[in-house]
Amino acid sequence: MSYCTFVNNNISEEADYLLHKHYHDHQYGFQIDSDDELFGRLLLEINQAGLSWLLMLRKQESFRSAYSNFSIERVAAYDENDRERLLQDPGIIRNRLKINAAIVNAQKILELKKDFGSFKGWLNANHPLTKLEWVKLFKKTFKFTGGEIVNEFLMSTGYLPGAHDPDCPIYLNTSNQ
Fold first, then answer.
1. Residues of the chain with pLDDT under 70
2. Is the CB of residue 32 less than 8 Å from the CB of residue 118?
3. Backbone φ, ψ for residue 7 (5° rounding)
4. 3, 13, 28, 53: which one is catalytic?
5. Which of 58, 48, 62, 51 is CA-nearest to residue 18?
6. DSSP state of 20
7. Which of 64, 107, 57 has its CA nearest to residue 89?
8. pLDDT of res. 33
9. Is residue 45 among the annotated active site residues?
10. pLDDT of residue 177
11. Taking a C-beta distance cutoff of 8 angstroms, is the pair 7, 18 a contact?
């Protein structure tokens, strides 16, 4: 079942539905220009592994607060005190591997910026690749980036097609990017 079908046909608890609907209509499949926001989306996709996307939507603002508004530079400088702070934060997913991945990935993005000017510049320099090629590149470059994480990150940011069904009203907004 596509995300479009899920959102448009599974009206459950109103607050949950509205979270999904807003994300679907205004974020999913849309390009992101800000490196910090791209990093934030990657961080959320990594933390979603094994959990529901609804949980990530519910905790998105807590993640933003805990991870310095998704500032790549600030997260890259996190030390052991920050790791411990994050492990104690009930507003986020308190998984040491995911927390370490966020910090290491922020450091890696800073390295990529030296050669490509930005995280988005690195993504654009490698676009378009097939899903399999993207997965190999992400696994070589970042931590905690398996196939589903990479697929959802790239689809949700407009680098892979298929975020919206052709009959979805949002499809036209994302297919012209």
1. 11-12, 175-177
2. no
3. -65, -40
4. 53
5. 58
6. H
7. 64
8. 96
9. yes
10. 55
11. no
Tell me the C-alpha distance between 21 and 14, whole Å.
10
CA 36 to chain centre: 11
Burial degree of 114 (CB within 10 A; 0-12, 13-18, 19+): exposed
Q: CA 111, CA 172: separation in Å to the nearest integer?
A: 35
128: its two tokens:
């378009």
CB 116 within 8 A of CB 122: yes
CA distance 149 to 138: 10
Q: Is the peptide bond before 128 cis (omega within 30 degrees of 0)?
A: yes
pTM here?
0.93
Look-up of token digits 């899920």: 6
Q: With contact defined as beta carbons under 8 Å apart, do 170 and 59 qualify?
A: no
Catalytic, out of 3, 23, 67, 134: 23
pLDDT value at position 171? 85
Mind listing the pLDDT tens digit for each residue in 114-124? Answer: 999 999 999 99
| Active-site position among 3, 45, 67, 134 | 45
